[in-house]
Amino acid sequence: MGQEAPKDKGALSVIIGNETCKLKKAEGETGMRKTAVLGIFLAGTGLLAACSSGEEGEAQAWLEEDWEAINAEADGSDVRMFMWGGDDGLNQYMDEYVIPAVEQEHNIDLERVPIDTEESLQRLLTEKEAGEQEGTMDILWLNGENFRAAKENELLLGSFTEKLPRFNEYIDADSPETTLDFGTPTEGMESPLGKVQFTFIYDTEKIDQPPDTWEELRQWAEDNPGEFTYPEATDFTGNAFLRQLLYDQYGNDAAFASEAFDEEALEENTEPMWDYLNELEGSLWREGQTYPASVEELDRLYSRGEVSMTMGYNEARAESLIRDGTFPETTDTFMLDSGSIGNTHFLTMPFNAGNPAGAMVVMDFLLSPEAQIEKMNPDGWGESSVLDPELLTEEDRRAMEAVDRGASVPSQEELDNAYLPELDADYVGWLEEKWNNEVVQP
Amino acid sequence: MKHKVIIGVFLLIFSVLPLLLLLLQSIAPGWGWGELFPSAVSVQAWQTALGDPALREAVAVTIMVILFVAAGNVILGVPAAKMLAYKHFRGKLWLDNLLFLPILIPMTAVAMGIHFTFIRAGLADTWLGTALVLFIPTLPYTIRVLRAGFERLGPESEEQAKSLGSTTLQALMFVQLPQIMPSLRSAVFLTVVITAGQYILPVIIGGGTVPMLSLLYFPYSNSANEAVVSALSLLFALLPLVVILLAEMVMRLVFAAAHRR
């Protein structure tokens, strides 16, 4: 998954973990004997103490402190940031810019720990059960399904963004890009880091004029059999491709995102979408008998020239791959006229963060215009800024506009015009299942 | 002669060629489909792989953990294997199956419970805890392999050594172990390779604070940049080789010292 924020698998185990806690809570209301038996059983494993110990830890106390005290505490401390580490650009941005900068400006020793977000959540869940109040994780990178699972399981420290001076200064706190994370209200529990939009990537040498509509895309695929495919619905990007198509069933109306997830209505209204995909299948790579399991596999097919298009949930993802020679130099990016869904990814603190003060100072630093402008540098991460240009100083705004993100990245204006808010996380699972039934099975 | 040719061909197809391909891929980014030769050569992937500042520490920690696990496997595995090979007692079949069980149960299912226990014991997030948990996927194999070695050897050599006045330990060190060297070597080899390749256990128990090499490598395996993946794969393959050489040296030294006495 290119650079498009943490993945969202593994929610199942997280939910199972939640059940045990629910079980425990319900238990207090049942009869004495039952409680005793269960109690002995649970005490043996230590679950009893863990689930009921909801008392506020030391970490929460830092949410009440003022910024000066937080800054003083952060000075000279260590901060551990857990983030998925499979992207060179992202790693480079962290290792070569952020880590030295926070060391210099705040005397903080920041360490990047490259672990998948699901694994991190799994660990947090066990730590919560075991009553571990002093965790190793200070900052966690996440969004979407993972955020929802973390929030529902009370794995997060709490609402903190209004503490961050730069959040208050530069972020449009009322914009749905900030208040909603795949439909889940953020409630100040996570601070934005970056945002990305869905785009298609193609080779200009093989395609003169990229398609503008879904119909043109299908026509092009039909005329060039075997040169197009998309990742499976279980893949982050493959699912985004399907959500993009789903939006089209609803006239690409941004209001669709704020509608509640209604499975019955979906079943009724999405018939044309599945017909479209089934019709498309015959023209796909290997005639649709198999789909790439991940967007990286699709990328490899593209970089070897087997297919002429790939895609990515990050408008700048082609740029770094072109620069390091993975993608041909004739690679460019396009969006359909119908729009491009986008999402924001965030940083948060777990309930047992060992150094919340240091974590908040680092997250505040990452919202500085300097850090956000550096993040746009295509030789590093090349990712879009989350700051509201209206709130920036004249000087910073010019500096931001002056960044050359690379020829393959659509202009900010194009991106803003095409922007469609991301759908509720419930759609992800529904599309996975439905795609399997409608497209793979028959 | 004919055998040697067949073995040679197999070696070439299944080990030399894939390694060579990895090496080529690591220095030729964007080697396109249908191109006979790569269009460009660059060492950038190696710079990315070797430039990761965590790499040096990860290599050191990984070697330490692997050696610890390998030594512990031999120390725990030899008595267990010997007893299973020579002694007959009630419930032996049960014990045998019980010792093999850790391999059959999915590791992710066990990891959460162990993590829970280790947090309570203060072993979570420490290198010792990580090393201890890595006995689970390795010790069953070690016992199996060593047991087969002891069974082939038979109990007679120990009896003979004892009749000549040696203690059980002396018989083990001077008579039995030198004779089951091939089994010992296989056991160490398996332990090293399995330990190096573990991802979930070090992630869950070590929590990223114990930087094993697999933690650095696995996230990259998902990257679209095949060159970096290839470079890291080669490094990753090299490490067990180095450790096995180290282990071999240690074993030889131990036996040589034992002989001199």
TrEMBL record, chain A:
Gene3D superfamilies: Periplasmic binding protein-like II. SUPFAM superfamilies: Periplasmic binding protein-like II. It holds the Pfam family SBP_bac_8. It comes from the Bacteria. PANTHER family: PROTEIN YNJB. This is Putative spermidine/putrescine transport system substrate-binding protein. The lineage of its organism: Bacteria, Bacillati, Bacillota, Bacilli, Bacillales.
Automatic annotation (TrEMBL), chain B:
The keyword Transmembrane helix applies. PROSITE patterns: ABC_TM1. Keywords: Cell inner membrane, Cell membrane, Membrane, Transmembrane, Transmembrane helix, Transport. It holds the Pfam family BPD_transp_1. It comes from the Bacteria. The keyword Protein biosynthesis does not apply. GO terms for biological process: transmembrane transport. It is found in: Cell inner membrane; Cell membrane. It is a multi-pass membrane protein. CDD domains: TM_PBP2. InterPro entries: MetI-like, MetI-like_sf. Belongs to the binding-protein-dependent transport system permease family. PANTHER family: INNER MEMBRANE ABC TRANSPORTER PERMEASE PROTEIN YDCV. This is Putative spermidine/putrescine transport system permease protein. It comes from Sinobaca qinghaiensis.
